[in-house]
Amino acid sequence: MNLGPVRPASPVLLAPLCGITDSAFRRLCRHEGAGITYSEMVIADGVIRGNESTRRLMRFTPGERPFGIQVAGSDPAVMAEAVRRAADLGPDLIDINLGCPVRKVVDRKAGSALLADPQRMEQVVRAAVEATHLPVTAKTRIGWDERTAAPAETARRLEGCGIRALTLHARTRAQGFKGHADWGVIAEVKRAVAIPVIGNGDVTQPEDAARMLEDAGCDAVMIGRGALGNPWIFSRALAYLATGEAPPPPDIFTRIETALLHLDYMCADKGEGVACREIRKHLPGYLKGERDAHRVRNDIHQTKTKEGMRGVLLAYADELRRRPAPLFHPETLGESAPA
User: Fold this and answer.
1) What's the predicted TM-score (pTM) here?
2) Is 218 a catalytic residue?
3) Number of other residues whose CB lies within 10 A of the CB of residue 2
4) What is the pLDDT of residue 333?
């Protein structure tokens, strides 16, 4: 899949997620093989105003490339200027958000609200495409709701505006993140357009990525919530695509080591106070499935310093190393280890 001059490093991409896919997390995912990384969504008005928090969201390091800045907006002129300013920061591409279901974005008539106003959607996207020499892509949903959804028609409209690729989260705005993603609609959209189509929704295991590529016939897969506290999903998915077998998930010691590296990155980028608050979103993923993980998360929530968090996690790792291996009996072979 080529997006003009941009060649994704792999067909498994990291989705933009507000409050999650900051520079620190993008670096980890890119190291594990994510083919493209994206900024958290920024609002076009904030880009134009030079809002410092918005500028922070758009900063990136060379190790995150290929890298795209995702912009949301509803006014064509404002979107065009925001795209020009975002492009000046040197990303590899610009992505237009046409799928965010969050009320504060929808109330701005941006994100998924544009699915209910196709004419304005076209004006906004065309203005973005014409404002930059960079490839412009779009990320959208099936539609506003099941009754009004016309995903193939929407895809053709967007292709006509000049976007280089379309990512489809296979849920409606009305669904939010509930229910199941309809991969059949991804296949329908792929048949409707000539540009690359990237599938998104319910990819949480390496096998899911392969199945979406096969069943939907899409050009790439974008992983969002499945990567939370789990950057290895990219390397494991790529291994599965290459060999038909996924390596096992990393052990808890590797996960703790990576969580600590993640914390280091965040502290360097954002300062200790912010980093210690925000790393808590990722820790359930890093500790998932481990005995006493709930206790460890509670202990983490009681500390507000980097050294305090390091102490909790390293003490937990030491506790696990000293714990005797569980005893297995013949009748339990093939089953999970006893709690």
Assistant:
1) 0.91
2) no
3) 12
4) 37
